[in-house]
Amino acid sequence: MPETIFLNFVDMDLGAITKYSALHAKPNGLILQYGTAGFRTKAEHLDHVMFRMGLLAVLRSKQTKSTIGVMVTASHNPEEDNGVKLVDPLGEMLAPSWEEHATCLANAEEQDMQRVLIDISEKEAVNLQQDAFVVIGRDTRPSSEKLSQSVIDGVTVLGGQFHDYGLLTTPQLHYMVYCRNTGGRYGKATIEGYYQKLSKAFVELTKQASCSGDEYRSLKVDCANGIGALKLREMEHYFSQGLSVQLFNDGSKGKLNHLCGADFVKSHQKPPQGMEIKSNERCCSFDGDADRIVYYYHDADGHFHLIDGDKIATLISSFLKELLVEIGESLNIGVVQTAYANGSSTRYLEEVMKVPVYCTKTGVKHLHHKAQEFDIGVYFEANGHGTALFSTAVEMKIKQSAEQLEDKKRKAAKMLENIIDLFNQAAGDAISDMLVIEAILALKGLTVQQWDALYTDLPNRQLKVQVADRRVISTTNAERQAVTPPGLQEAINDLVKKYKLSRAFVRPSGTEDVVRVYAEADSQESADHLAHEVSLAVFQLAGGIGERPQPVTS
Ligand code: 16G
Ligand code: MG
């Protein structure tokens, strides 16, 4: 198509691109990959990536004739890191073919950059005369402001228009993109629009709670010293009728994600630093960009209890199912988990709740995609990423029911309507999830201990193994079985047989250069042994490097 190539050359100001690109030069030889969470590495290596993602966002916007989002964050990573993700028109993660383009563009050496840009435009049939609009958000990292300026440089040099929202949580940026591409029907694309939409639904929902005593009114929130603190502080007066939040690790002194936040609490199975917890007080932690949430409490004996994404999914799906029964709608509701879901949660959902459960590969986009197959799809990773999705048809049906049905049924339909409004339909959102959970607990009169007692988690252990090349491990069946290297799955099967209620799997990490090992069994000791033995099998059969895995000492 020589004609298109000609147009491409004319419509891109190649001179300007070269000039500006030189101001955001790529360090020679640096190779990065657009992974499950976009690009993520040390902040000082990211300037060129940001500029180029600005360019790419313009092309994607032109191609989809929609607003595209660019979020500058590295979520739960240490403060020194940073990262960037693109957000597609309906608030979803970037389409897979564009992830590949992102990787190619980020890794092109300076002199090849233009060629790659033109290649992408041609492959994707981008009409360069189309207008482009990009919205940008960033977290509170010290490096984020400058890096988001580099994104803006990239957008501008390709002639794109932009709106810089400045500090936002990741889910808030997804919300903005979704609102802008749905003509305002979903909500107003402003921070007040977000606060108003969620708070109104929350306050209406909790008004229906008969028991809204003090116990349900207050919650301690660990904000990981991140953006969640700023945004919750701005938002709290909108919903203060229904809930009072006490913020900890609000960034005023501590370091981002350091000894606090959802990732720390989940992986260390202990409370964050900087938060005083009295027995039976309800507490939760966000991660650094506020798209993950876990709950926890100390019991009367001072024992720590974690309530992870699996138990959150259980609470939410049970409540939704009850409401559907009440209004007499037989909609199909499904729960989506990953291999990391605790075996007890899966058993409880299937056998007690009678809700169908599906398993996908790790990474929000896989769960999200599967959840879209249901009228109502509830998805959560054990680590606290998740939400509930409602199909448009279901949303309309429920809104109609709320108008038409008689008293008791109407009440249930109204509640569902509010829950739909509360969940950020564009992405899993710690603030949304928190408000939905708080509302459900108040409506059902459940204490945090009663919620926790729905089922007992099987003891489990996660370990990491260093290998020369983690790609030698490939998996199937939603990462629950290893296909290669030969003999590894057989070895795991034999080890698992030695323990009761046991299960184990291994997978190459998508974010770190390690192989992850997961094991669960009837006791902590057995889970620890099994995880260690599986680690040794990985070390031997998958090319372990460095020191042999040591037994777990707790
Ligand atoms: C990314 C994913 C998260 C997943 C994690 C697994 C998104 C937004 N984030 O952080 O869902 O749990 O990777 O990391 O999709 P791993 O591959 O290193 O175990
Ligand atoms: Mg995050």
Summarize the structure.
Helices cover 44% and strands 18% of the residues.
**Uncertain ranges:** 1-7
The shape, in one word, is globular
Q: State the helicity in percent bands.
A: 40-55%
Describe the strand arrangement of the main beta sheet, using strand numbers.
Answer: 1-3-2-4-5
Count, helices = 20
Note down, in words, how this protein is organized:
One of its GO terms (molecular function) is phosphoacetylglucosamine mutase activity. With 554 residues, the chain is of the alpha/beta class. It has helices at residues 2-11, 14-23, 47-64, 96-107, 113-123, 144-157, 170-181, 191-207, 214-217, 227-239, 262-268, 309-327, 343-352, 364-371, 392-404, 407-422, 430-444, 448-452, 488-497, 524-541; strands at residues 39-42, 67-72, 81-87, 133-138, 161-167, 218-222, 244-248, 283-286, 293-298, 304-307, 333-338, 357-360, 376-380, 386-390, 460-465, 474-476, 481-484, 503-508, 515-520. The strands form five sheets. It has a five-stranded mixed β-sheet, sandwiched between helices. A five-stranded mixed β-sheet has the order 7-6-8-9-10, sandwiched between helices. Strands 12-11-13-14 form a four-stranded mixed β-sheet, with helices on both faces. Strand 8 (283-286) and strand 9 form a beta hairpin. The longest helix has 19 residues, at 309-327. The N and C termini lie far apart (64 Å). The relative contact order is 0.09. Residues 75-76, 287, 289, 291-292 line the site of magnesium ion.
